[in-house]
Design a protein that fits this description.
The protein is an alpha/beta fold. Helices cover 44% and strands 17% of the residues. The N and C termini lie far apart (44 Å). Bound molecules: 1,3-dihydroxyacetonephosphate and iron/sulfur cluster. Residues 66, 91-93, 119, 177-180, 205, 240, 270, 272-273 line the site of iron/sulfur cluster. Iron/sulfur cluster binds next to helix 9.
């Protein structure tokens, strides 16, 4: 059973108090529960959160996102304590890529650059030339001198980038994000019939057929910018349902329509993102548990592709 409003208010008070006492910062991704976004010091997409993690002067970073995001914060801040509210909150797509597999691909294509989506585990980053996020992937790939790209692990973000950089050859890892992959045009098109003036905005992790019917394709932050400012009152949103919270905060005068996805938890819903709760944030901050730790050599090697990305964008 969830907390009552009174209990939730008490938990929030305690978190805010501990944050101040311990000089801690709470970073949250847009897919986090609304009550977490409401008390975060910063809410953003993967790129913005990586930048915030690099800039912060807090002693403790509590990262409300999935594991690879908290790891990224640790890799960029090896001297800080990074706490992850729930170690069970991983990313199924990140787990689809292995370091050994990437090394093998690199052997087969020695002239290719290994471009890893930030949605990878730290060991995969150690064998990557550069990381990308959904917001900057096209820019980063264009900036590379190599004409051949090994793109890991999201085949759909990879093909989206490949279409915009036709001068380069792409070798795509066959990973995918289950919630975005399961969103089909058949779920979006009836909504378009219901709201003929509506624009469709989707995340590039969606499958190719879904991306084809969209008016706009972008990262979570870019979807917010587009949906809250475009000239249609109704906007059909093809990404994780957690984004609704920020969309309605930024511009409450519009109607954001999220499809029902019968195959995956009822909506486009990332079960892993929702494993973080206010109770867990309070517990990790209070007891300073679930600290992200990585071997020094992993941090050093994984930092290189991340820093290279941050220099390009
Ligand atoms: P962005 O916030 O970079 O768009 O990424 C979405 C995502 O799936 C994170 O796991
Ligand atoms: Fe991973 Fe997809 Fe969840 Fe993002 S939304 S954390 S890519 S499973």
């Amino acid at each position: 059973m969830g907390n009552t409003v009174l209990e939730q208010n008490e938990i929030v008070e305690k978190i805010l108090d501990l944050k101040e006492k311990k000089n801690a910062v709470l970073l949250a991704h847009y897919y986090q529960r609304g009550e977490i976004q409401d008390i975060a010091d910063y809410v953003g997409d993967s790129l913005e959160l990586a930048k915030k993690a690099q800039e912060t002067d807090a002693d403790i970073i509590v990262f409300a996102g999935v594991k690879f995001m908290a790891e990224t914060a640790k890799i960029l801040n090896p001297d800080k304590k990074v706490l992850h509210p729930n170690p069970e909150s991983g990313c199924p797509m990140a787990d689809m890529a292995t370091m050994e597999g990437v090394i093998n691909l690199k052997k087969q294509h020695p002239d290719a650059a290994v471009v890893s989506y930030v949605n990878t585990n730290a060991d995969v980053k150690t064998v990557s030339d550069v990381t990308v996020t959904s917001r900057n992937a096209v820019k980063v790939v264009k900036a590379l001198k190599e004409d051949k790209i090994i793109f890991v692990p999201d085949q759909f973000l990879g093909s989206f980038v490949a279409k915009q950089v036709p001068e380069k050859e792409f070798i795509l890892w066959k990973g995918f994000c289950p919630p975005h992959f399961n969103l089909s045009p058949e779920q979006l098109l009836p909504l378009k019939e219901q709201y003929p003036d509506a624009k469709i905005a989707v995340h590039p992790e969606c499958n190719t057929e879904t991306v084809k019917i969209a008016d706009f394709v972008g990262s979570t932050s870019q979807i917010i910018e587009y949906a809250t400012t475009c000239d249609s009152e109704n906007v059909i949103i093809g990404t994780e349902v957690g984004l609704k919270h920020m969309l309605e905060k930024v511009n409450p005068n519009k109607n954001y329509i999220f499809p029902v996805n019968a195959d995956y938890c009822g909506t486009v819903h990332c079960c892993d993102m929702k494993k973080n709760t206010l109770d867990k944030i309070l517990e990790v901050l209070d007891k300073e548990i679930n600290e992200i730790t990585l071997p020094e050599d992993v941090i050093e090697k994984a930092a290189r592709p991340l820093k290279r990305m941050l220099e390009i964008v």
